[in-house]
Amino acid sequence: MNILIINGSPKGPCSITLHTCLYIQKLFPDHTYEILHAGQKIRAYEKDMSEAITALEAADLILFCYPVYTFLAPAQLHRFIRLIKESGYDLSGKFATQITTSKHFFDVTAHRFIQDNCADMRLRYIKGLSADMEDLTKKQGQEDARKFWEYVEFCVEHNICESPSASTATSAPIYQATLSPVSEVPSNPGSLSDFTSDAPVTKTENGTKDIVIVASWQENDTAIQAMIKDFQAVCPHHTRIVRLEDFPFQGGCISCFHCAADGTCIYKDGFDRFLREEIQTADAIIYAFTIQDHSMGPRFKLYDDRQFCNGHRTVTMGMPMGYLIAGNLAPEENLRTVIEARCEVGHNFLCGMANDAEGIQTMNARLLYALNHAYVQPQNFYGVGGMKIFRDLIYIMRGLMRADHKFYKQHGIYDFPQKKRGQMLMMIAVGALMNNPKLRAKAGKQINEGMIAPYRKVLEQT
Predict the structure, then answer these.
(1) How much of the chain is in helix, strand and coil states, percent to nearest 5?
(2) CA distance 337 to 316
(3) Residue 88 in contact with residue 125, Cβ under 8 Å?
(4) From the CA atom positions of the chain, what is the Rg in Å?
């Protein structure tokens, strides 16, 4: 079997994930393997895809290999998938699977992103392997990799694949609505130069809030541009636009951990300062993009990935956020999950994912309420579970990730259960009671009464 490994890591041969693929290659030498370092060489492939097309033609099975970056695959792999689709090459009938490494922080949404794009390209998708970063150094991780590949071989031999999961559906109607303004407060479309000058963004007065619209669009994306204008028309606060295509990004995140210590990026394009001073200083953030390949598109994903440290340090907690999304959002279950989880982990209030004129009105109403009442909901499983993964990770890596460690200490995120000694002792006493049949029989309803006693006290005091 001819196997093409598409390495989406920007680290190229130094990718941890790639080494799981190389391990499989050692265990199963009867196959032919070829590696494309798509993440590291994306700029070269943007100029010439001929090498990649030749490799795709020869492949029987395509193995996507990448680290999970901010809920999804890295921006570089997003871009490479777009280039494959734009090439027009027919991949129908070939098999595909994936291997990722992460700390299992929303690896499910990253895998679904690849699965949905495999469905677009009519690839026969086999469920992939999600490994912890250290798994390959352990016997169990090595065994998991071996068994995974045996399963892949079984699926190929018996022509077994997952049912297409993609949101392949019909095109969404073109956004054409124009909403009437509800206020004469002017908005400021601005340009990149307005937001990268030495002068900080001036805070507004008289109760008017500063709303930044972080947007990604191509010149022919008229729908998202119309949505932005209509949102500005109904929003009574000061708005300003930051278009990501105008920012001089030197490159995508390479996971070098340079920003983990002091928050500064290894690139010298000024993005870290730009993010802190021009975006995170706002009272609310509205993101705007057109759906592309079941995601927000490579440019927006590049912006997301470059916020690496902000993914750990939830510095915008409490800030309202909303999304203007052009395209057919209804079937994009995974994208909606990513957006909700992104807000939950950051402890932001999600004002809405507006996809039409009615959605813009509703999102604006929620935004105004959140700003007027400082409203943010308690975190759900996405936020609580996600932050517990980072809590444990940052604590272990606190010697390296010093800025993260300082932030977590300041905000009480280190809420380890072993610190709750009083509660633990109480549970030991209750456990002893419940394990004694005679005492358990005598206690009867008193146990339930004891459990709800603190809650009755709250009601009495209210």
Answers:
(1) 50, 15, 35
(2) 20
(3) no
(4) 25
For residue range 415-424, list pLDDT tens digits in order.
Answer: 888 888 888 8
DSSP 275: I
> Collapsing DSSP states into helix, strand and coil, what is residue 304?
helix
What average pLDDT score do residues 20-25 get? 98
What's the pLDDT score for residue 147? 98
Residues composing the chain: 462
Long-range contacts: 176-181, Cβ < 8 Å, 24+? Answer: 176/226, 177/226, 177/230, 177/356, 177/357, 178/226, 178/229, 178/230, 178/233, 179/230, 179/231, 179/233, 179/234, 179/357, 179/360, 179/361, 180/233, 180/234, 181/233, 181/234
Evaluate if residue 11 carries a pLDDT over 50: yes
**Pick from 304, 295, 288: which is nearest to 239 by CA?**
288
Residue keyed to tokens 């977590």:
408
**φ/ψ of residue 5, rounded to 5:** -95, 115
Ordered DSSP codes for 414-460: ---GGG-HHHHHHHHHHHHHHTSHHHHHHHTTHHHHHHHHHHHHHHH
Question: pTM for the whole thing?
Answer: 0.88
Integer Cα distance of 179 and 189 in angstroms: 17
CA distance 132 to 150: 19
Residues 174-215 have pLDDT tens digits of 787 677 664 433 344 443 334 333 334 445 556 899 999 999
